[in-house]
Amino acid sequence: MKTNSKGEFVRWESGFRHWVTPDGSPGPSGDGGFKAEPGRYHLYVSYACPWAHRTLILRTLKGLEGLISVSVVHPLMPPESWVFGEYPGATPDHVHGFEKLHQLYAHTAPDFDGVVTVPVLYDKARETIVNNESAEIVRMLNSAFDAWARADLDLYPAQLRADIDAVNAVVYDTVNNGVYRTGFATTQSAYEAAFDQLFATLEELEVRLARRRYLVGDRITEADWRLFTTLVRFDPVYHGHFKCNLKRLVDYPNLWAYTRELYQMPGIAETVNMDHIKRHYYGSHPSINPNGIVPKGPALDFTAPHGRDALDGAGGGRGR
Ligand SMILES: N[C@@H](CCC(=O)N[C@@H](CS)C(=O)NCC(=O)O)C(=O)O
């Protein structure tokens, strides 16, 4: 884990930033030559990882299961990063049969010396990593494969982009990455600062979701799914393991019901593997849980009725 001189957790930059596009033209960053084609691309994910989880959700929602294959790493992450291995729900590396994810990075870039992370979007034709930044992979999955995918579903519609970007920025910093900044802080002051920001945002979101069904506009967008992957892990992991314990998710009636609604959308429950989530965090961070004991609780029922049908998407047309 990387912390700076103030004991603040600092997340690394993702190294591969090419884009799959409908015609193979370059995207906003990286090189071109990655044309959307059925069967050409492969996703490497961990069920534990909230960033990888976003990409799995987009793959499901857009109906890309038959177009983009997936390999799932073992939930326990040794110091050298993710490995493949026998474990319920984990798979081998279906493309190369590698045992460790860093072999895939080395196969693409023999001199790679950055952090080996999931998710990875991999091009089987060119045998190279396209992109390992989840925020960009979800954008590609949202639109590049529309010739074969559910083109009617747009999670990043042009007219809502500015609002989605604004929500994402706050949610990323204080919630998605905020739980890590809280949990991996190595000074009391860094911990408390991240903790306060996290719970200030959760309070704001709780109010926002009282009269709005979703975060932005009148429909579910990318912003909701990016928040969801942190919320679904909150009580089982972040509350205890990362010391994010001012409140639990279940103490926020709106956020908790919203999380259940998203969880109950078709195909989503299958992307949530609570065993991998808990095994990974509690078992892979000896600096904060030296004995690797995995708590048995809490008992949470994501399938309980969410009761949010009464809210229309735009919060009764009252705007934001
Ligand atoms: N910015 C990246 C972050 C991905 C990331 O940090 N993944 C974590 C797992 S949750 C990882 O692979 N960490 C490897 C390590 O800590 O060595 C993204 O959103 O794709």
TrEMBL record:
Phylogenetic classification of the source organism: Bacteria, Pseudomonadati, Pseudomonadota, Gammaproteobacteria, Chromatiales
CDD domains: GST_C_Omega_like (cd03190)
PROSITE patterns (alphabetical): GST_CTER (PS50405)
InterPro entries membership: Glutathione-S-Trfase_C-like, Glutathione-S-Trfase_C_sf, Glutathione_S-Trfase, Glutathione_S-Trfase_N, GST_Omega-like_C, GST_Omega/GSH, Thioredoxin-like_sf
Superkingdom per UniProt: Bacteria
SUPFAM superfamilies xrefs: GST C-terminal domain-like, Thioredoxin-like
Name assigned to this protein: Glutathione-dependent reductase
Domain GST C-terminal: residue ranges: 157-284
A Pfam family recorded for this sequence: GST_N_2
